[in-house]
Structure formats: C-alpha cells, structure tokens
Amino acid sequence: MLHFDSVKKTCIHLIISKWLTVDTCLQTAATAMELDLNILYSKAMALALWEFPRVRNTDAFFALTIDAVDVYLQNDGLNTSQGEFEVFEAGLNWLEDEMESRAEHTMRILQCVRFVDITTFDLRTMLLYPLVRDSMEIQHLLQCILMMKGGIPIANSNTFATQDDDLDTQSGSESLLDNKDKLSLNSYSGCLGGVKSFPYFTMSQNKESFSDKSSQGCVYCVTSPCREHSMNNSPAISLEELNVPVTVSPGSTNSVAKDLTSTLLPIQVFPANTVEAANHLLQLPCRNVPLLPCVVGHMLEETRQNESGTKVSIKSGQPCVFTFDEKKQEVVPLLILSKVTQGPLEPTGYKVTSKGQELFVTGGEYLLGHSNWNRSVWRYNVLREEWGFETSLPFHRRHHSVCVMGDDMYLIGGFGRHRIIMDTVEKYNTVTKIWSSCSSLPSPLYDVACIAHKEYLFVFGQQVHWYQPDQDSWNTSNIATPKKFLNFNCAMSHGHCIYLTGLFTTVLVKFIPFQDTSMESVGDFRFPTVNVCLVGDNIYNFSTDEENDGRLMVEVYDIIRKEFLIVWQSQQREIIDLSNSKHYEEISAEELDEDDYASEVEFD
C-alpha cells in the first residue's frame, strides 16, 4: 500500500508538471473526480477556471455535457477577464456546436450568466442572436432584465386584473427556472420583489392602454431607478429601443397616473414567471476569483535555547512571500524565494511581480559597487509549484519598477552601472519570450509606483507620466501631486480610480485619470505603508508596530465602505520582517534628493 501511494504521488506530479494544459485541464478534472484524486482535481480546476478565456475555445469544452457546462460556467471563481458577456458567448458557442440536440438547454445556459455585471449594451446585443430571436420566452426574459437595469418600471401580470385569457394562462404557468432554482421574491432586501404601496394600472382588453385603477400591489422599480438596477452605471433606455408600444388610456382622471406618465416611463407588464426569473438572475452575486493578499518579506534569523540548553536556529532568514490567512488569523509564509539567494548573497533592488498564476523575479545587484548583477529572470508557477529559468535581462538593472499589461511585462527605469539613474524602458512578452525596447521615460526614475490602468501605463514620480503602448509614446499629466509627499511606492487600479501610497507616510490618496486635476486624500492608515496590495475591494497594509515590541499588524481599507480597519495584530513579537528592507536599505543618500524627505504630507 505504501508503495502504491508513492507511485500515485509520482504519477500525479508528472501529470501536473507535464500533461496538464489548457487543452487537457477539463478532461483531467473529470477523470480526477471519478478516481477521487482531490489534489489533481483541485489543480486541474484551478487551471480551467483561471484560463477560462482560452479553455472555452478548446475541443474539450465543446465535448462537455450540459451538466458539466452548467457546473463550470456557474462557478464563482470563473475568471471572466472580458466580462460576463464572455460567459454568454461561451454558452452559445457550446449550444451551436450541436444545435439540434442542445437547443433545448438555452435557458439553462442563460442561468449561468451573472446579469448583475452585464451592461444594457450587451443585453441589447444578446437580443440580436438567432437563438434568442427564435424563442419568445427568452426574448421576454432578456427584455425584462434590460428594463430593470435601465430603470423602466416593471410589474408582473399577477398584479393586474385582466380579461385576457392568454395572460391568465401565462401568469399561472410554471417558473422559467427549475424548482431548485426558485427564489422567493419577498426574500430580496432591495426594491425588487418587495410588496410596496404603489399605484398600478390594469390592462384594458385591447392590451394597448391602461385604465386608471389604484390599489396595493407588487410593483418593481415603479418610482425611480434604484441602486440595484443602475448597475454598471448603465444609461436609462427608452421604450423605442425595445419596440414595446404601451400607453396610458386617454381620458384617465387619476392624478397619480398622470404624474407617472409625465415624469416616468410607462409601467411594463410581463408574465409573472418571467419577472420571477429575471428577479432571480439579477440577484445572483458577482463572481469572486479567489485571490490572496501577498507581500514580500523575510523570516528573521533567531536562535533559542532548547530544554538541554543548546542554541538552535529556528529560521533561515530567507526572503519569502507571505499572505494573511483570514481563517487562521495569522500571517503565514506562502513561498520561499529560493532562486533569489542562489548568488553569493541576496541581491539588492530586485523585484517580485505577479502575473496570473505565476511570479517573476527580475534584476538586482549582489554587491553594490562591484558590478555583480543578477541577470537571470526566474518564473515560479504556482499551479505546478516549481521554479524555472525564464530569460536573461538585456541590461543590468536594480531598484527598477515592473508593470504587467496583458502578456507584456515592462521594466521601467532603475539604477544601472555606476549608479546611473536610467530612463530606459524594456518590454518582455511572456508568450513569445522576446525583449523589445520602448520609448524612454520623460525623465530618469527609480523605484517609482506604476500601474496598468485601462489601456494605459501610469508611472508616478515627481510628476505623473502615462504611456500609450499602441503609439509607443509617453505623456506627462498636469495633475497636482501632494506637496512634500515622498516617492510613491505603490499604485493600485480599482474601477475608474487609481489609489496610491508613499514611503514613510500613512496617507492613502486617489484620483481619476484624465478627469481629476489633483489627488484626493482618502485617509490614513495607522502605520506607514511599506507593503501594500489590493485584493478585490480591499487595500491591505502589512506593517510592523515598532513601538509595541515589533508586533505585526494587518490593516485594510474597504473601498466600498470607505473604512480603515485593523483586521489582525499579533500578540507577540513575530520572527517575520515585512519592512521590505532589502529593496530600500542600501540606497545611498546621494541617490536620494534632499527634497524627497518630509515629516508630514500636505494637500492643496
């Protein structure tokens, strides 16, 4: 049995390292689940979810059963980098691959889409697809969702007293969703599905006008576009765009009816099962790709005496990637950066950069002033848990900045030979493995914050510079930066905004590129922001409380709630150093301008 376990582990390792690819991950996951190989299944599904934009075009995806497609596309961890419309397209492509046998599953495929993240523009596009046009049921569902998101008043047909037999039949029909997917309307805490005291109008027999009757009923979004239905800042839509002719009956004497029709769009009526299905689909939460807040630090070398009095070294002092484990409520080492210390000692000014499921280590100098440089670029694959040599740097570089945009990794500025501050920018394509030179920076810079935001690359020195990859050109923004603000050390893109932190300060600032003329102070962390990262809607600050026996602390700024919180603080001195000192401690005074130092931050 022990021998069998050893062989099984070896086989799993070989499959993960040699066989597991974008083309084989779905097949591998299915086989691993049948054989109860949990580790292999976890690795295969992790690859399939992260590489969804590529996996959805493979033969293995088109060969899936409807149950397998449903499980895959409904997974909360699906990496929809191009938005939820990509899920809709993937599902329709799967249907069209075997149209005759799969057309009946169209509604089930639609239930995989998170409509909360679908724009009204994409919804209008969906209505143009042949599979949608051929089904009145699906058309009504998408039109109902479109109106809800556009802020047009919606009511279900159960609300209306009507003499129309067809409408009665529709309102009493089964739900568009399976029984297991039904959701009580009253369970929704927002405006959808809540029974409220609003006027409604009954349909006349000719279906072309409304009579003036007020009562208590369940009316959706009858007053104004609400927060739930103004998602993605989608613009309001008109009835003309949907070609739905609805009017209020002429001669109506109801004052509320006249007021509604003069200020709002008319209420639209859909079968009750359609409204219920649309309500349910809009309640599905946004996807949440599982990401960990990670920073680079060091395990401190520390010796203690054991019971016999012998001194024992308990930590190696190697550089590590650390993460905050919310379940265990502690900062734990995730990965030892073993390739960093393969030289005579740990280099100064190297950079660790993440790109998807991979880490890259670039640059650094082993002995300052002795021209002993790290030219190797190392890649660590998180999925396979192995290091590999990637390429060599075309130029010596340390204390540079690194920014990832798509498949390209940009190395910006830094120090070169003879401690000369550089203005050069090199681009490395991680797919083609080719280096290319880009236009030089407007001025030499080192250790500056940079970020890929929308289709631009931003660099934050004493001025804000932005780069257009398609034109290979740099521009300088006239946005005002905070006075006496020491170099920005971290830039984070969130929605339309860029958030920034600086060295030796606790201030967090933000601005909207090409719109704001100055940066706005969001607030202050409790401790200086040396190790900061963004995950989802939270900005994490890993810091050390030097005044309290060097205890570690993790602070979070919740962007949505606009709150600073201390989520964890160690109860004793940890043998972890998160000051990132190897990146900064050996920068000489000559390399810093006197004006860079400041004791406080001022804002205009």
TrEMBL record:
Keywords: Kelch repeat, Repeat
Pfam families according to UniProt: BACK, Kelch_1
BACK domain residues: 25-128
Native source species: Timema cristinae (Walking stick)
Gene3D superfamilies (alphabetical): 1.25.40.420, Kelch-type beta propeller
Identification of the protein by name: BACK domain-containing protein
Keyword Repeat: yes
Superkingdom field: Eukaryota
